[in-house]
Design brief:
A mainly alpha (533); B alpha+beta (320); C mainly alpha (240); A: 533 residues; mainly alpha; 16 helices; B: 320 residues; alpha+beta; Immunoglobulin-like; Cytochrome Bc1 Complex, Chain D, domain 2; 5-stranded mixed sheet; 6 helices; 32% helix; disordered C terminus
Chain lengths: 533, 320, 240
């Protein structure tokens, strides 16, 4: 391990809370989102416990509604949206580009503080009294009928949105202006492409949810009438505005994960990425197309048949770039030399589970079928396969992949593999039965349900308990490894990429000498020293 | 109709299984065949334009089939047959109230005859609900401020779940009921057990009670448009627009009369918002529908999502 | 890109123009700052865009009510404000130009002029809001749109669906209110620029904040250029 690096060159709480180092900021985010993940996870635990019986005996209906709202808001806005970008992106992006930091380090720190402010306010709203609108805040329930802390919750998300916007802005400018000499766009790692595409969505989409939430708050406080039908307002207009952001938001919640997979697979297959340019452009395509499909959340909300058809058509179009990625990842494995280290196991899991999630997306993009499965557990299963089976697995894979770079230590491989397996099995047991439940008709957000649905619910809850264990394990062994893990060395994986050319952990300014890039991305044609692969 | 959805689902399932197992097989086979111990040196392959085109175009083609099939089904959902029988429904926190044209009312239960096309015209008294009958594979949001509709064709007598499928507050999961499909004669007998007279007759009583007939009449003392023969026919407004007098227009004219003023009349009609509830509006609506036709053409049958105006998406849009 | 050598123009007179440690040279730093401001302005377009979208949708549905609402606004105040803002963009551009020339006194004068013009705008806006308050056209409990004050001072009766009219005014206050908030923030930023100019922080080799805040000011101006016709000018009805 190097004598001086970014973790030990300054000590004390001030050096962390006033840091401008993107690496430390990444760690600040990592701790914060883990905290919010636990809160959201507690919500999920209580939900699944309540659903063990059909009669809703664990919690009251009011509490249940507040629980699923808490779960959704925490997981979407305070875990998934920041996860890979703010943690892994912050840490790795400048390193991958050969830069000393992001373009605006002070704004980066400000982003984190804004995130904490929004998160704290949200937590307060959710716990002191709660919010029962669901994370979707549909009107007129949220504006006129709910008796809970809607305005506070909405404003907290508004605040947190600025964090997302500023992070995205920072990443865009960094990618454009701070690449090392020789790094052309097509020599950049694919993680950068994904993060860049995500940043575009963050920058363009988040302001729209901001103004939408302002309108909800105004409506609730002053009854201005814009979403209230009694005053001529249109409650469905809210849905259009909400989903105009929230659909691209789901791409914020998967694109960075795809970027992580694009880093892991070439490294652990010792091969350059098959179809690099296609994978790069597919990230941009997903970002662009992601903005024009929001209406598929409104198929049964009373929109015209013709606009529904347009949105359905476009929803199939947006699926294609994701399919291209999956095929390219698979093709990268062909004639590779494949290692089964933990990051690669997470990548395998991602491919399988994301494929299920994505293919079930085709079901719901179909108008005739969405009518039946809309607002049922089928939808819940669909998006959890992508967000949890996909994104969370990718996040964990990325954490394990870059752990040696972040901490200078290796995690314990045996425990890591076990956790990955437990997570994979627990996840499938939790969510696969939900596809069946949904097709059979069980509605979502139901505190009680007809008894014939119980068996599947019990299976799902059992899976959730296994999944919880799977998530706890990394928390423990990763912490353990910081002190007792094996020392990693600069490039334990023998990976390509500029971040592996510097020490583990890196010095505060990332590189002793600014690198000059001459190789193509993912150049595994030459032998690389790899102690741990 | 439900069967058609299931055939489509089966097609989707086959596609899913094919592509899922394809990807899994490829990944597993490659991961095992080319594992480090068996294949120590990787072969650097950068790409293949042919493959890229292939696995772009083929999924796109299959997607288009899925899209088209789904769209055709959806059109069917949105075009109830012209001779469908209407039942009116009002969703409110947290119950369903149904009104049959013959006057029968029910709460959280919906009796329908087997073998007939049934169109349920719905509105909400408060928040957005959703009328869902999984057994029939149909659902539709129930929105305050306008009428939407869901239609189905029951094929087997029995009792089927009715769910509210749009989160609507505390007892959302309690807003469930039963759709009871009966043999045709059993249904006719059941209809006779209601006592108040038909929906249109109830509407007529209300029309007089509220004094609507003092302005809406057929003689020189009329201060409002004559309603006989109005329903389903075009109306010209003071701003020059011509719209069709559909369910939404009639409802809006009762609750927010200043929104659309008929050409040649003054904006003097008082609003009845707050004085009558949605069920009473439905009674008045049916009375107005029943009034003698002065012009040929008859009532317009329309798409479920806006019962009178295909493609409308405004809260009370007249026409598009 | 970063293959350029370090800039050789004269350094800023004060340490504030120093190269930040993560940039390779001043040009990269300046480019990054400009790009950052442009990206930020794009987010502002999306923010206002959401409101514009809501306005356009409701205007289409409730055209009659919106025309009446628009007629009830004072077109003279709106027009004067438009002229005032355009002039303020001119003075802002002159400020940036002065900064580029290193002309400190001119820079300060133009910044002050810009702030004054912005202040006039906000003052007229406040008067307009007050007039709306007096006429009960502010959405909420006391909203009643049944009459409006004509330019000659006379009262004119209005018959329109109150809900539709209230939505017009809600969107009017939301749009102009958001715009005014951005103006106030702009005044704050200009104050900071004024102070920095007074303290000789800028010179011809470093005036990036002036440039970027100038961009922001121009953007706020452009938003108004869209707001004015959409809110004040649609099919104004002059006769009963």
């Amino acid at each position: 391990m190097p004598r001086e690096h970014y973790l030990n060159h300054e000590f004390g709480i001030k050096s962390w809370l006033l840091t401008k180092d993107h690496k430390r900021i990444g760690i600040l985010y990592m701790l914060s989102i883990t905290f919010f993940f636990v809160i959201g996870g507690i919500g999920a635990t209580l939900i699944r416990l309540n659903l063990l019986t059909p009669y809703g005996t664990l919690v009251s209906a009011e509490t249940y509604n507040k629980l699923f709202t808490l779960h959704g808001i925490m997981m979407v806005f305070f875990f998934l949206v920041p996860s890979v970008p703010a943690v892994l992106g912050n840490f790795a992006l400048p390193l991958m580009l050969g830069a000393k930091d992001v373009a605006f380090p002070k704004i980066n720190l400000l982003s984190w503080y804004i995130f904490i402010a929004g998160g704290s306010l949200e937590l307060w709203a959710l716990i002191s009294g709660g919010v029962d609108t669901g994370w979707t805040f549909y009107t007129p329930f949220s504006t006129t009928f709910s008796n809970t802390n809607v305005i506070t919750a909405a404003l907290a998300i508004f605040i947190a949105g600025f964090s997302s916007i500023l992070t995205g802005l920072n990443f865009i400018v960094t990618t454009h202006r701070m690449r090392a000499p020789g790094m052309t766009w097509f020599k950049m790692p694919l993680f950068v492409w994904s993060t860049y595409a995500t940043a575009i969505i963050q920058v363009l989409g988040t302001p729209v949810i901001a103004i939408t939430l302002v309108l909800v708050a105004m409506e609730r406080a002053f009854h201005i009438g814009v979403f209230d039908p009694r005053w001529g307002g249109d409650p469905v207009l809210f849905q259009h505005m909400f989903w105009f952001y929230s659909h691209p938001a789901v791409y914020i919640m998967i694109l960075p994960g795809m970027g992580v997979i694009s880093e892991i697979i070439p490294c652990f297959a010792r091969k350059s990425m098959f179809g690099y340019k296609f994978v790069a452009f597919s990230s941009i395509a997903i970002a662009v197309f992601g903005f024009i499909v929001w209406g598929h959340h409104l198929f049964i909300a009373g929109i015209s048949v013709y606009s529904a058809m347009v949105f359905s058509f476009l929803s199939y179009a947006v699926a294609i770039p994701s399919a291209i990625k999956v095929f390219n990842w698979s093709a990268t494995l062909y004639k590779g030399s494949i290692s089964y280290r933990t990051p690669m196991l997470y990548a395998f899991g991602f491919i399988g589970l994301f494929t299920i999630g994505g293919l079930t997306g085709l079901f719901v993009a179909a108008l005739g079928l969405d009518v039946h499965v809309h607002d049922t557990y089928f939808i819940i299963a669909h998006f959890h396969y992508i967000m949890v089976g996909g994104m969370v697995m990718a996040y964990l894979g990325g954490i394990h992949y870059w752990w040696p770079k972040i901490t200078g230590r290796m995690y314990p491989e045996g425990w890591a593999k076990l956790s990955a397996l437990v997570i994979f099995l627990g996840f499938n047991l939790t969510f696969f039965p939900q596809f069946i439940l949904g097709y059979l008709g069980m509605p979502r957000r139901y505190h009680t349900y007809p008894p014939e649905f119980q068996v599947l619910n019990v299976l799902s809850s059992a899976g959730a308990s296994i999944l919880a264990v799977g998530y706890l394990l990394p928390l423990i062994y990763l912490l353990w490894s910081i002190r007792y893990g094996e020392v990693a060395g600069n490039n334990p994986w023998g990976a390509s990429g500029l971040e592996w050319q510097t020490t583990s952990p890196p010095p505060p300014d990332n590189f002793a000498v600014t690198p000059v890039v001459t190789e193509e991305a993912y150049d595994y044609s030459k032998e690389r020293e790899a102690a741990f692969v | 109709m439900a069967a058609h959805v299931d055939y489509f689902y089966f097609f989707m399932l086959l596609n899913f299984l094919f592509f899922f197992f394809l990807v899994v097989a490829l990944v597993l086979v490659f991961a095992i065949r080319y594992r480090r111990s068996a294949h120590p040196k990787a072969e650097q392959i950068h790409g293949s334009l042919l493959l890229e085109i292939g696995w772009t175009v083929i999924p796109l083609g299959i997607s288009m089939v899925m899209f088209a099939w789904g769209a055709i089904l959806f059109f069917g959902f949105n075009r109830p047959p012209k001779d469908a029988m209407d039942i009116y429904g009002v969703g409110k926190q947290w119950m369903w109230k149904f009104q049959h044209l013959e006057g029968q009312r029910e709460i959280n239960q919906l009796h329908v005859p087997v073998g007939r096309d049934v169109r349920v015209v719905l509105t909400s008294m408060d928040v957005i609900h959703d009328f869902a009958v999984p057994a029939f594979r149909v659902k539709g949001d129930v929105i305050p401020g306008r009428y939407t509709a869901v239609w189905f064709h029951p094929t087997r007598p029995g009792t089927y779940h009715l769910f509210c499928d749009q989160y609507c507050g505390t007892l959302h999961s309690g807003m469930v009921g039963d759709v009871i499909v009966m043999e045709k004669d059993a249904y006719q007998r059941w209809l006779l057990t209601g006592g108040e007279g038909s929906l249109a007759q109830q509407g007529q009583k209300l029309f007089q009670q509220l004094g609507c007939n003092t302005c809406h009449r057929n003689d020189s003392q009329a201060r409002g448009p004559n309603l006989a023969g109005l329903y389903g026919n075009p109306v010209t407004l003071t701003d020059g627009r011509t719209i069709t007098a559909d369910d939404n227009y009639i409802r809006e004219s009762i609750l927010r009369p200043e929104a659309k003023i008929v050409a040649g009349f003054q904006p003097i009609m008082p609003t009845f918002q707050g004085q009558i509830n949605e069920e009473q509006v439905i009674e008045l609506l049916n009375y107005i529908k029943s009034m003698a036709q002065e012009q040929p053409g008859g009532p317009v049958k329309t798409s479920p999502n806006s019962p009178a105006v295909p493609g409308a998406s405004g809260p009370a849009a007249g026409t598009r | 890109m970063s293959e350029h050598s370090v800039s050789v123009t004269e350094p800023a007179a004060h340490p504030h123009g120093m190269l930040q440690h993560h940039f390779t040279d001043m040009e990269q730093q300046k480019d990054a700052a400009s790009m950052g401001m442009w990206v930020f302005l794009v987010t502002e377009i999306m923010f206002f865009g959401g409101m514009f979208a809501a306005y356009l949708v409701y205007r289409y549905w409730y055209y009659g009510a919106f025309v009446l609402g628009s007629t009830s606004l004072n077109i003279w105040f709106g027009a004067i404000n438009t002229g005032v803002l355009i002039c303020s963009s001119l003075t802002m551009a002159m400020a940036v130009h002065s900064a580029a020339l290193g002309a400190r006194k001119a820079l300060i004068v133009f910044l002050i002029l810009t702030m004054l013009l912005g202040g006039i705008f906000l003052g007229i806006k406040a008067k307009e809001y007050y007039d709306k308050y007096v006429e009960h056209h502010i959405p909420g409990e006391n909203f009643k749109f049944d009459s409006m004050t004509m330019p000659d001072g006379s009262e004119r009766e209005v018959h329109v669906d109150q809900g539709q009219a209230q939505i017009y005014f809600s969107l009017y206050f939301l749009l102009t209110g958001m715009h005014a908030i951005h103006m106030i923030i702009g005044e704050g930023l200009l104050t900071a620029l004024l102070i920095m100019s007074w303290l000789r922080r800028f010179g011809s080799s470093y005036y990036t904040p002036v440039e970027n805040i100038g961009l922001y000011w121009h953007f706020v101006d452009i938003v108004w250029i869209f707001l004015f016709p959409l809110l004040y000018l649609i099919s104004r009805v002059h006769h009963v």
